[in-house]
Every structure is written in structure tokens, then in C-alpha cells.
Design brief:
The protein is mainly alpha-helical and 480 residues long. It is built from 22 helices and 5 strands. One of its GO terms (cellular component) is plasma membrane.
């Protein structure tokens, strides 16, 4: 009789989070009931229940990948987060700290003593230590550096010498190097002696005796070619390479363009000093995307959703204050035309339409421009042409949709002049939004700032104030 082996379906990340939340809830509920019991053995019963529930939760955590635990920690309020964090095995702390967001990592490190931090950091590679070091206490970093061997210490210092978004800060030092004058059989024997290959190893790096990069040997070429051939006959001599001071986002774009999994990093003399891997590039692209969204909304940094009220206020106040000022300006623009609004009440009902459509159109334009800038598609030479194109789109949209709302205004209020003013105001405000949508990110970039920084706040301010002024000004000129 044969047994049919059934495979357990893969749980979704949300299922795992729900299971942990349920176990936490169960633990709190049972602990609360045990605490309410009075009797001689209350402390013993409470202690047993406490251990039993936490042991069940710990077993669940042991089954999960560090990235899954990181997601769970980010999704829990602070008290529950620290409860789960204390149940994670010490040897997994380092992997999880590298996976969580910066804001959540801060709360986890604050809950660890120096001994725990050192134990977690000692399990990391040099590039991982460099990622974590800026967020650790100085005395811990000093003690950690003293515990490293000379090579590791030099690698960490090298990675820390670069800006966080430069290739040098993102590169990995774990890689396999070979010579070009050996046979593929020798290379295969060498690989078999290694305990394991570094992650994302799709190619071996061919260097000379001075460490100068001569080419790369893709694993697929190593496996399918005659073992008696020499590396020099099989290797690729023109690989995509990067230098440590290059922009990391440009490297990420190259990874996408050339479908890279890993790539060598060389100094100005061509000496191999590290490699970039696809996992770092994916993380960088995700972080850049998240940062762009936050900047467009006027948030200064990534925010822990369960952070204290004060921390969240500090993160959000700056652009809210800016928005308050721009809203006040818009209100004063309306105040200039109070007499016109009193004479024709329809203006009060229609002016939010002009401002709202202008804001939406401006956000569309600014999103397209910021994305194009991120992909290096916008240069000084094509900026004027791009501006003309966006103004043309705004003109067509203004005439079409302004005409639609003008007809509706005539139908509702029986005033054809009001319909014409509505069409003209809509067209002019869309032209303003297009101009601002192109010029705001370009100006920010020229000033050395992130083109997305507060852009949605600024474009809304301009289209609100401008829309009110254009619409009410035209109405005052032609209807009063």
C-alpha cells in the first residue's frame, strides 16, 4: 500500500502575523485570569501558565524566517513587540535587526543591553556591521571594532567611509576569486573544498596576483564547458563594474537594465575590493521608493506606525506648518473677493472645483517628472521641450474639462457668462499646475534637494491659491 504524501500549503505572511497576534492575546488573557485567582498555589499556577504560553509563541517564532519576524515586529504595538523580541533566540537577533525598518530597529536596540548587542553584532559580516554601526552606542561600536580581526576591522572602516547611498557602503566583501591560468577542473575542486558559497554567487571573479580584476567566470559557463579548458578561455573579460563612490541608485538601475545578480566593485586602479548583490539593490530600490512617497507627503523620515505621539508629531510638523501658511494665503485670496462672492453666491460653490482639478492635474505632472528624474530621463537639454509638452496637455485638458464644467454651470445657474469664466479659469489653473509640476522638482534638484521633498504640498498650495485668484478675478472682471 502506498501512502500519498500531502504537502502543507504555504502560509501567507498575514496568516503568520495573525497566529502570533492570537498567541499574544491568548497569553495575556490566560495570564490575567491566573492573576485573579486567589489561593495558596497562585504564584506557581501563574508561573506555569506564563511559561506554557510563551513557549508556544517561541516555537512559532523559531519556525519563521527572520524577514517574517521583522514584518511581525513592525506590525505590533510597542509592548507586544518587545514581548516577541525577548522570545527570539539570541543567535537570530542580528539577522532580524538587519531586516526591520530603521524606526523599529531603534526600539529593539533600546531594549537590549550592551552584551546582547555585541553578541548579535559578532554574527554579522563586515558590510552588515557597517549598516548597523551608526545606530549602535559609541562604546559598543568601539568594543565591537576591538573584537574584530585586522581584515574585518579594515573592511568595516572602509564601508563606513562612504555615504549610505554610495556603492562602497552597499558592497559585500564575501566573494570567490580565482586565477585565469588554471583549468576549470581546478576551479571545481577548489569550490568543493569550500563549506558554502557566498549568497547570490552567480559568477566567480578572475583576478591577477595583484588583485586586479581581469574578468568574471559565470557559474553556468563553469558547469557546461570542458573541465580541461582554462579560465581565460571561458571567462567574460568585459563585465559590468562599479566604483565605490558611484551612486547606489544608479547601480540599482544598471542591475535592472542588465539583469544582474552580482557585479564586481573595483577601485580606480581596477583592483577588486568587493561586489554588489541583487538583494542589496532590491532593498535600495524599495527604500528609495518609500522615501519618495514620504517626501512627497511632507514626512521627514520613515515613521514607526506605533511610535509615541511626540515622535510622530516631530516627524510631521514641518510641512503641516508650511501647509497652514499656504492655506492662510489661500483664505486671504478668497477674502480679497468677498464682495464678488456676496453678489454671486454661485462662485462659492464652483471655486473648489477649479482648485481641486488643478491640484489633481499638478500632482499627476509632478509624479511623472519626479519619476523621470529618478530614471535620469530629464536633462537640461530636454527640460524646455518637456515643459512645452506638459503645458500642451494642460491646455487640451483645460479646454475639454473646463468646457464640460462650463456647460454644467450654465445649466445649473442659467448664466452663460459664468460658464465661460469657469472654462477660462479651469484652463488657466491647469496651465499653472503644469508649469509648477515641472518647475518645482527641477528647482529642488538644482538646489541640491530631493525633487520629491514636499512637492505635493507645494503643488496643492499653488493650485489652490492660484485657482481661487484666477477664478474669482475673472468673475469680478466679467460678471460684476
Amino acid at each position: 500500500m502506498t501512502e500519498v504524501e500531502t504537502k502543507k500549503p504555504q502560509e501567507s505572511l498575514q496568516d503568520r502575523l495573525n497566529q502570533v497576534v492570537e498567541l499574544l492575546h491568548k497569553h495575556k488573557l490566560v495570564e490575567d485570569l491566573a492573576h485573579r485567582q486567589e489561593g495558596q498555589h497562585q504564584d506557581i499556577v501563574e508561573n506555569l501558565v506564563h511559561r506554557q504560553n510563551l513557549a508556544e509563541l517561541q516555537r512559532k517564532l523559531d519556525e519563521l524566517h527572520p524577514a517574517d519576524i521583522a514584518h511581525i515586529l513592525e506590525s505590533l504595538p510597542l509592548d507586544d513587540r518587545l514581548t516577541v523580541w525577548q522570545l527570539v533566540k539570541a543567535e537570530r537577533d542580528g539577522d532580524i535587526l538587519l531586516e526591520v525598518s530603521d524606526a523599529v530597529r531603534e526600539t529593539l536596540i533600546a531594549d537590549m543591553d550592551d552584551h546582547e548587542i555585541l553578541a548579535a553584532a559578532k554574527e554579522m559580516d563586515a558590510d552588515e556591521l557597517a549598516d548597523l554601526a551608526p545606530e549602535l552606542p559609541r562604546d559598543v561600536v568601539h568594543e565591537l571594532m576591538e573584537s574584530l580581526d585586522a581584515q574585518q576591522r579594515e573592511r568595516v572602516r572602509s564601508a563606513l567611509s562612504y555615504e549610505e547611498d554610495e556603492v562602497g557602503a552597499l558592497m559585500d566583501f564575501e566573494m570567490v576569486t580565482i586565477r585565469d591560468d588554471v583549468s576549470l577542473e581546478v576551479v571545481l575542486r577548489y569550490l568543493r573544498r569550500l563549506k558554502e558559497l557566498p549568497g547570490h554567487t552567480d559568477k566567480l571573479f578572475v583576478v591577477d596576483y595583484d588583485g586586479i580584476l581581469k574578468g568574471v567566470l559565470p557559474i553556468k559557463r563553469l558547469l557546461v564547458n570542458d573541465p580541461d579548458k582554462e579560465v581565460a578561455d571561458v571567462m567574460a573579460s568585459d563585465p559590468v563594474t562599479f566604483q565605490p563612490d558611484q551612486d547606489g541608485y544608479e547601480a540599482a538601475q544598471a542591475f535592472e537594465r542588465y539583469d544582474l545578480i552580482s557585479a564586481p566593485v573595483v577601485d580606480k586602479n581596477g583592483k577588486l575590493i568587493g561586489r554588489l548583490t541583487i538583494d542589496e539593490m532590491v532593498d535600495l530600490i524599495r527604500e528609495e521608493s518609500e522615501s519618495e512617497v514620504l517626501n512627497m507627503a511632507g514626512l521627514r523620515e520613515e515613521e514607526d506606525i506605533f511610535a509615541s505621539v511626540w515622535k510622530s508629531v516631530r516627524n510631521r510638523w514641518a510641512w503641516l506648518a508650511t501647509n497652514l501658511v499656504t492655506a492662510f494665503i489661500a483664505s486671504r485670496v478668497i477674502g480679497l473677493f468677498e464682495g464678488s462672492i456676496e453678489k454671486l453666491v454661485a462662485l462659492a460653490a464652483l471655486m473648489p472645483i477649479v482648485a481641486g482639478i488643478g491640484g489633481n492635474s499638478g500632482n499627476q505632472t509632478i509624479t511623472m517628472i519626479v519619476r523621470a528624474m529618478a530614471l535620469d530621463q530629464v536633462q537640461t537639454s530636454n527640460a524646455t521641450r518637456l515643459l512645452r509638452k506638459e503645458l500642451g496637455v494642460a491646455l487640451v485638458n483645460g479646454l475639454v474639462w473646463g468646457g464640460v464644467i462650463g456647460v454644467m454651470a450654465f445649466y445649473l445657474y442659467g448664466n452663460w457668462e459664468l460658464g465661460v469664466v469657469m472654462t477660462a479659469a479651469m484652463t488657466l489653473n491647469l496651465l499653472l499646475s503644469a508649469f509648477a509640476g515641472v518647475m518645482i522638482p527641477m528647482t529642488l534638484q538644482r538646489l541640491g534637494r530631493d525633487p520629491a521633498m514636499g512637492s505635493s504640498v507645494m503643488i496643492t498650495a499653488m493650485t489652490d491659491s492660484g485657482g481661487f485668484f484666477i477664478f474669482l478675478g475673472l468673475a469680478t472682471l466679467f460678471l460684476m
